[in-house]
């Protein structure tokens, strides 16, 4: 047989295989993807599993699966993948070749480097024939997400008095006084109840003396986080580091308190991912589920303010019915805020302010 | 000339040179076929290869990165080899440029990668050259050996083209971006295996006419041999033997060889057809067995190769781990047989155990027949509603024309939902009424 005839037949066979693979590329081809866990903490190593199955007698010579992830998930070294990182998202590609009646389960090792909610979104699959004469593209929407909680700061190394918010331990003066624990006398001050007057000590001193009561924790703390990095902030925080520190600090405090059987609540003037209009205010309560709720909120928190912190506190002041121990985490304190906080105090709340600084050690503390 | 790749090695250079010679074989060989002597023609491709090697060797020694130096070295090697081949003569006008091109390409192989030296259209041009020259030469009977040579080199060029283009396409599809494409070996292995299968299919299609001719010749010879047993005089003697026929007038069959009798001719035809049928059946059976076992063999081969070539450290470098498993499935042959059975099966009911079962069987049989005819049965309907729906579907009306006889429906309700068993007379009446629907 002559070469031209052979090459002509070869061209027909090649054209036929292109036709066949174009028609059957995605037939009986299943693809799914899922995270090993639904939630984890920053820095945790988890797995992303891809399952692809070819349930037919024809092979799939090549299949490329592309998807987009938010930056914050670090993939391991993968030579046959191209992860192009941008500021907000990264392109992830997987490449497969499937023989007939074959299923591949691929486990990617990833590190959750940054808090947030990572959704699986939509994947785009591309396949074709052996010589690239034809290719087919198909998109598939996937369900599933991974919530990466902020890494809680270890409270044992903190200077905050929060570490003594346990049981009946004596704590610093900014917590509500315990009427059952007396530690001495002091001079009468305007506003002290008459029932606290120590008559004997007053007679000895020649002036009114009142019982001095030490303070113990009542174990119910409400944390307010201010996402404004300065008072004149417009919408987005330009210096996110202190606020991210505040988020981790909040997570540490909440985990610490709730693990001790105490109760905590959380509120912020920031917005949540996918819920920009939601007023974030989680009531004070306890339990494992409550901890996950607060951590999940912190994971979804965006450094975009929904309203000024002053207005937020004003709304919260009207909403609160019982006196609370309130911890304010903010990068600044202004006279306007101080005035608002004094209104909290006048309503019976106890307020502590913790200034968020870029360096975690240089924190400042004020109490009202 | 950008990168000095003089360290790529002689094996790679030889491989690249062989591929280029294959692709450009018509251009290299056809003029030489007419210009060179038969003795020197056999050494011509080898000399071309030597030109590549000499060119590459020169750049390894002297790093010929400039055009002038590379051109000078190519001229020197071309002059030496061409004159050695053909001497000073008209043929030198052909051999010298060829040797110069070979030497220059050898030099460039040290500086350019395979992709730059052999872009995709290059392969297609080579194949077109094979096809075109083969087509032109097909009108000349005197160059049969040249056409055969072109067929073989064309086949090899096709193999090289498909393998290279497939690998290149797969690497491009990984969308490597700025970095070098890296592909898992398993993917390349699979694609190469599929290319090989594609080539085998192409070979089968190409060889099929010859195979048919060969098989036909074998069958005809076998039939003739069998026919000899039924004839006094063989009607066909292949090969003819130089036998001396004695001039004896007392030949038992007369002066002329008599033609075989009709029944012998018929028998010969029958035997030929039988042999054809047996051979075809044997071929089909062999293909069936091959098709049945080939997927399992391929899977075993693939699994063995995966075990052999997939190293743990390789997977760790890739950053993921794959678990490959086979999906359980019904063999295609069994599925096809079951489908055929369902398609052509005649439903035979088991004999009814009692009158109630007989009534229910009759109702079910009629309804099944209507469903096969296209009626969309609604399971939520009662038997009476089903009967009315059937009549509406068929456009019939009145008891005489009902698709489901009312007495059948009534008795079915008794048998199915009622507390009493139908009597024999009732069953017989219903069976008679339903017989009308069998026709």
From TrEMBL, chain A:
<dbReference type="InterPro" id="IPR002881">
    <property type="entry name" value="DUF58"/>
</dbReference>
<protein>
    <submittedName>
        <fullName>DUF58 domain-containing protein</fullName>
    </submittedName>
</protein>
<dbReference type="Pfam" id="PF01882">
    <property type="entry name" value="DUF58"/>
</dbReference>
<feature type="domain" description="DUF58">
    <location>
        <begin position="185"/>
        <end position="359"/>
    </location>
</feature>
From TrEMBL, chain B:
<feature type="transmembrane region" description="Helical">
    <location>
        <begin position="12"/>
        <end position="36"/>
    </location>
</feature>
<protein>
    <recommendedName>
        <fullName>Protein-glutamine gamma-glutamyltransferase-like C-terminal domain-containing protein</fullName>
    </recommendedName>
</protein>
<feature type="transmembrane region" description="Helical">
    <location>
        <begin position="193"/>
        <end position="211"/>
    </location>
</feature>
<feature type="transmembrane region" description="Helical">
    <location>
        <begin position="270"/>
        <end position="290"/>
    </location>
</feature>
<dbReference type="Pfam" id="PF13559">
    <property type="entry name" value="DUF4129"/>
</dbReference>
<feature type="transmembrane region" description="Helical">
    <location>
        <begin position="42"/>
        <end position="59"/>
    </location>
</feature>
<feature type="transmembrane region" description="Helical">
    <location>
        <begin position="146"/>
        <end position="165"/>
    </location>
</feature>
<keyword id="KW-1133">Transmembrane helix</keyword>
<dbReference type="InterPro" id="IPR025403">
    <property type="entry name" value="TgpA-like_C"/>
</dbReference>
<feature type="domain" description="Protein-glutamine gamma-glutamyltransferase-like C-terminal">
    <location>
        <begin position="363"/>
        <end position="433"/>
    </location>
</feature>
<feature type="transmembrane region" description="Helical">
    <location>
        <begin position="71"/>
        <end position="96"/>
    </location>
</feature>
<keyword id="KW-0472">Membrane</keyword>
<keyword id="KW-0812">Transmembrane</keyword>
């Amino acid at each position: 047989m002559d070469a031209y005839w052979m090459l002509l037949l070869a061209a027909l066979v090649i054209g036929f295989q292109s036709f066949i693979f174009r028609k059957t590329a995605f037939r009986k081809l299943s693809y799914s993807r899922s995270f090993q866990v639904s939630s984890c903490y920053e820095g945790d190593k988890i797995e992303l599993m891809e399952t692809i199955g070819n349930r037919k007698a024809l092979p799939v010579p090549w299949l490329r699966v592309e998807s987009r992830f938010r930056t914050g998930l670090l993939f391991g070294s993968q030579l046959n993948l191209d992860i192009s990182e941008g500021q907000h998202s990264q392109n992830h590609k997987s490449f497969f070749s499937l023989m007939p009646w074959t299923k591949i389960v691929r486990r990617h090792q990833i590190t959750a480097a940054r808090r947030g909610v990572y959704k699986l979104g939509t994947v785009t699959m591309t396949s074709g024939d052996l010589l690239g004469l034809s290719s087919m593209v198909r998109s598939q929407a996937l369900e599933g997400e991974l919530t990466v909680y902020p890494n809680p700061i270890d409270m044992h190394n903190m200077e905050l008095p929060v570490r003594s918010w346990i049981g009946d331990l004596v704590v610093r003066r900014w917590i509500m006084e315990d009427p059952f624990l007396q530690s001495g006398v002091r001079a009468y001050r305007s506003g002290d109840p008459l029932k606290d007057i120590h008559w004997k000590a007053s007679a000895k001193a020649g002036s009114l003396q009142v019982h001095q009561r030490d303070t113990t924790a009542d174990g119910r703390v409400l944390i307010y986080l201010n996402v404004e990095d300065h008072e004149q902030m417009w919408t987005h925080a330009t210096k996110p580091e202190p606020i991210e520190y505040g988020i981790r600090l909040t997570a540490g405090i909440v985990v610490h308190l709730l693990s001790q059987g105490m109760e905590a609540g959380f509120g912020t003037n920031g917005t949540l991912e996918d819920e920009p209009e939601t007023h974030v205010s989680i009531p004070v309560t306890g339990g494992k589920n409550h901890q996950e709720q607060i951590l999940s909120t912190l994971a979804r928190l965006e450094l975009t303010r929904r309203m000024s912190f002053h207005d937020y506190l004003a709304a919260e002041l009207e909403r609160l019915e019982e006196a609370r121990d309130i911890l304010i985490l903010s990068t600044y304190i202004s006279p306007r805020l101080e005035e608002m906080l004094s209104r909290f105090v006048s309503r019976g709340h106890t307020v502590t302010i913790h200034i968020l600084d870029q360096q975690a050690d240089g924190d400042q503390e004020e109490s009202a | 000339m950008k990168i000095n790749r003089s360290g790529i090695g002689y094996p790679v250079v030889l491989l690249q040179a062989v591929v280029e010679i294959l692709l450009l074989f018509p251009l290299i060989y056809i003029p030489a076929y007419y210009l060179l002597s038969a003795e020197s023609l056999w050494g011509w491709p080898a000399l071309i290869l030597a030109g590549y090697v000499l060119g590459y060797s020169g750049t390894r020694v002297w790093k010929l990165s400039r055009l002038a130096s590379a051109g000078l070295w190519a001229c020197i090697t071309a002059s030496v080899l061409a004159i050695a081949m053909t001497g000073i003569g008209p043929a030198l006008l052909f051999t010298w440029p060829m040797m110069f091109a070979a030497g220059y390409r050898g030099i460039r192989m040290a500086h350019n990668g395979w992709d730059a030296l052999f872009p995709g259209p290059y392969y297609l041009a080579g194949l077109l050259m094979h096809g075109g020259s083969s087509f032109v030469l097909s009108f000349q009977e005197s160059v049969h050996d040249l056409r055969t040579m072109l067929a073989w080199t064309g086949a090899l060029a096709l193999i090289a083209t498909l393998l290279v283009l497939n690998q290149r396409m797969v690497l491009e599809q990984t969308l490597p971006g700025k970095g070098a494409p890296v592909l898992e070996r398993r993917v390349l292995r699979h694609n190469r295996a599929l290319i090989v299968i594609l080539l085998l299919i192409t070979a089968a299609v190409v060889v099929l006419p010859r195979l048919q001719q060969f098989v036909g010749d074998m069958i005809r010879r076998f039939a003739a041999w069998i026919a000899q047993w039924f004839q006094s005089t063989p009607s066909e003697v292949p090969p003819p033997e130089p036998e001396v026929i004695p001039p004896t007038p007392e030949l038992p069959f007369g002066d002329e060889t008599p033609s075989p009798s009709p029944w012998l001719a018929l028998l010969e035809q029958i035997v030929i057809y039988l042999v054809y049928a047996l051979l075809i059946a044997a071929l089909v059976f062999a293909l069936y067995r091959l098709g049945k076992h080939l997927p399992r063999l391929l899977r075993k081969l693939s699994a063995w190769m995966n075990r052999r070539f997939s190293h743990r450290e390789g997977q760790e470098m890739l950053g993921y781990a794959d678990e490959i498993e086979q999906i359980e499935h019904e063999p295609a042959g069994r599925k096809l047989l079951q489908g055929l059975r369902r398609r052509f099966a005649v439903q035979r009911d088991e004999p009814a155990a009692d009158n109630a079962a007989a009534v229910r069987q009759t109702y079910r049989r009629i309804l099944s027949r209507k469903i096969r005819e296209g009626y969309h049965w609604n399971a939520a309907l009662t038997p009476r509603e089903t009967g009315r729906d059937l009549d509406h579907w068929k456009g019939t009306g009145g008891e005489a024309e009902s698709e489901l006889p009312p007495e059948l429906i009534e008795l079915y309700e008794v048998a199915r939902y009622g507390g009493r068993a139908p009597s024999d007379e009732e069953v017989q009446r219903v069976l008679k009424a339903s017989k009308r629907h069998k026709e």
